[in-house]
Amino acid sequence: MGVVAICSAKGSPGVSTGALALTLSWPAPVVLAECDPAGGDALPGYLAGQMPADRGTAELAVAHARGRLREDFFGNLIDLQPPGQRRLLLPGISSPTSAGVVAQMGPDLAALFGDLDGQGLDVVADCGRLSAEHTLWPIIVAASTVLLVVRATLPSLAHAQPTLASLEAAAGHPQNIRLLIIDQGPYTGEAGRRLGVPVVGVWPWAPRVARRLSQGGVLPRGQRLIVEAHRLAHTLHAGLHRKGVAADVR
Ligand SMILES: Nc1ncnc2c1ncn2[C@@H]1O[C@H](COP(=O)(O)OP(=O)(O)O)[C@@H](O)[C@H]1O
Ligand SMILES: [Mg+2]
């Protein structure tokens, strides 16, 4: 199945920014699923509040409670680049108070994501911080690839260590856990060795582009972060559809 879960250990290393950058570069139809129990970012951020906030995981959780998860799924998506229908957004919750009810549909949502493969859709799931109370573990467990985002600082790597241990214990494909390093700090070169996990991407510290991804605006072409996102999206996509193993590891 074509599901990439992207998450962090602690802090805000750039999970949502990374998930959106990957989605915008994905070489096939894809759904960006905002599963972070702390809330979704793209509606108020990248889309700058220009779309009605009447769709997303909270509305889907209500549909799930009525036994209509699959029927109502596509109606809860937003086309990020209309009218293409190739990059779709399942908006996350606008208030963390909805996190518990969203978590209740976790197993069924994970199964639905797995089945989207049959319709030619991949999923990039922004799962946020793994230490949260209502983390959607079923999606992480079922994902073919799990990306842990870390910044190249000692605190970020220190917090990643215990998180990786729980991730390895829980993940359905622990051999497919990968690091995405945000190159802000001196430990980029040794992060993979320190954590014992393959590094699949090193993205530059690029506040201007990151701000446009998280707050809206035109993305500059050829900027290194966008180039790296494009490269990683193609790597992950190729890996997902080649027996689920993330290829081209650095
Ligand atoms: N590669 C980067 N370079 C510079 N700033 C970044 C980068 N990635 C993310 N940021 C910034 O860091 C902040 C947190 O990013 P976000 O993606 O929301 O983190 P998370 O989802 O992990 O909480 C945002 O202000 C974002 O613009
Ligand atoms: Mg986030």
Automatic annotation (TrEMBL):
* Matching Gene3D superfamilies: P-loop containing nucleotide triphosphate hydrolases
Q: Do you know which InterPro entries this protein is assigned to?
A: P-loop_NTPase (IPR027417)
**What is this protein's name?**
Uncharacterized protein
Task: Name its species.
Answer: Pilimelia terevasa
